[in-house]
TrEMBL record:
<dbReference type="InterPro" id="IPR004360">
    <property type="entry name" value="Glyas_Fos-R_dOase_dom"/>
</dbReference>
<dbReference type="Pfam" id="PF00903">
    <property type="entry name" value="Glyoxalase"/>
</dbReference>
<feature type="domain" description="VOC">
    <location>
        <begin position="6"/>
        <end position="121"/>
    </location>
</feature>
<protein>
    <recommendedName>
        <fullName>VOC domain-containing protein</fullName>
    </recommendedName>
</protein>
<dbReference type="InterPro" id="IPR037523">
    <property type="entry name" value="VOC_core"/>
</dbReference>
<dbReference type="InterPro" id="IPR029068">
    <property type="entry name" value="Glyas_Bleomycin-R_OHBP_Dase"/>
</dbReference>
């Protein structure tokens, strides 16, 4: 292709804006760069943007419906993966670690139950040769 587009942002609907912003800043080192009425823009290290939009405490999250299901992150070192595993456990009280296709994944949930996944090695370090079975559930 003559031109390429790069994924730079995601929009995440949340129940409580401040609670979710605190989660992403404390676990992933995001920085809040914009605060608006009912929304916020977080900048992750490396420049990826997360738009948080408050939808209220009673709003359901349709797991297994059409659309994006969860956020995936990657780290360059096993030590980095252990750091995020510890951070997820301390903030959410839960995480799960498993390996598939030579990649180790740490999974947890944000305050609204949305899955967050951190992988090592990153896709730049090791292109994926198989799909992890957990992406289907």
């Amino acid at each position: 292709m003559e031109h390429e587009a790069k994924v730079t942002s995601t929009v995440v609907f949340v129940r409580d804006l401040e609670r979710s912003a605190d989660f992403y800043t404390s676990v992933f080192g995001c920085r809040k760069t914009l605060d608006a009425d009912g929304g916020a823009l977080l900048l992750a290290p490396g420049g990826f943007q997360i738009y948080l939009v408050a939808k209220g405490e009673e709003t359901p999250h349709p797991l297994e419906g059409i659309g994006a299901q969860y956020l995936m992150w990657a780290v360059d070192t096993p030590e980095g993966l252990r750091q995020f595993e510890t951070s997820l456990k301390s903030v959410s009280g839960d995480s799960d670690t498993h390996s598939s296709g030579g990649v180790t994944f740490v999974e947890g949930r944000d305050p609204d139950g949305i899955r967050v996944v951190i992988a090592h090695p990153s896709p730049l370090q090791q292109p994926r040769s198989s799909l992890d079975n957990r992406i289907y559930s």
